Amino acid sequence: MKRLLFLIPIFFTLILFSNCEIPEKELSQQELEQQKVENTIKRLSADVDLPMLDKSLERVNIKKRLELFEDENKVSYIYLVSYGKVMAFYPLKGKISSGSKRLTTNQKLVDNRHGSYDYSQYVVESPSLDGTYGSSDQYIYFWTTDGTYIQWNGDRFISWAEKVGPNTTSVVQLFLNRYAVEQQGYKSCMALLKLTDKYPPQRLEAACSKAFSFTISPSLKSIQAILRSGQDKLPEQEPEKPSSDYQYGFTRGAEYYDGGATDAD
Predict the structure, then answer these.
(1) Listed range (35-49, 54-68, 124-138, 165-179) with the worst mean pLDDT
(2) Dist CA 106 CA 135 (whole Å)
């Protein structure tokens, strides 16, 4: 009898909760849209089955391209372009490589104080299909058919100069435009920008500004001379103003206009 009396309250409690509706969480507009997208994907996936491919032509093309460009005897041609202008043209042998590519990864796992690795805490760099690491940027390099090494920096010198200042950038652009082939100006650009290894960037920028005050076409030697002599540290001199006695040039006396004097006098 006691067990029956104990079960009766539980029965009525279950009935009470079964009649109560638990309020649903109100979804945001973004969540509603995401839900619609997921439902659409499910419906479309159920409507059209994925094909069972026997062969992937995409993978075949990737394999063929990799084999083609990894042939060290392959001869091809490259047009080097800067600011929409073809600056150079070369026949090349082998493959074009990126300056940021590496043979090994620059990442490694470091064991913790317990002497074990926690691999779940790391995302490490994986190699490309050709076994190298790194991205394809910064600059490219290759060898021509006659074995000449070519390195193409493109706009790297401009970007480097912009970090120093506008006058330095103008000098670099001057060096690059001075030759029929832009690469002929690379040596001067590198020598100019490497001056920041010896002098602060502010001094190089001041020296370029000083050089432009002397000529519209400064040379590397003139900028180096300015830095060696310390002329870049001197304040810019304002042009001298003419004396007040000669401000208006030659002035004739009043008697000249009254007819008291003539040019013959």
Answers:
(1) 124-138
(2) 12
The angle that helices 220-229 and 201-214 make with each other, rounded to 10 degrees, is 120
- CA 110, 113, 117: angle at the middle one, nearest 5? 45
- List Cβ neighbours of 216 (8 Å cut-off, separation of 6 or more): none
C-alpha Rg value of the chain to the nearest Å:
39
Q: Compute φ and ψ for 142, nearest 5 degrees.
A: -165, 175
Q: Rounded CA gap, 67 and 73, in Å? A: 12
At residue 226 the predicted structure's pLDDT band, cuts being 50, 70 and 90, is very high
Residue 129 has pLDDT above 80, yes or no: no
> Rounded to whole angstroms, how far apart are CA atoms 57 and 217?
56
β strands within 37-163, DSSP E: 75-82, 85-98, 140-144, 149-152
Q: Which residue has the higher pLDDT, 125 or 57?
A: 57
Exposure on the CB side of residue 45, measured as CA atoms within 13 A: 6
Name the DSSP letter for residue 99. T
Q: Which two tokens stand for residue 133?
A: 């690491």
**Strand ranges across the sheet with 75-82:** 75-82, 85-98, 140-144, 149-152
State the Cα–Cα distance between residues 230 and 218, nearest whole angstrom.
17
Q: Which amino acid is at 95?
A: K
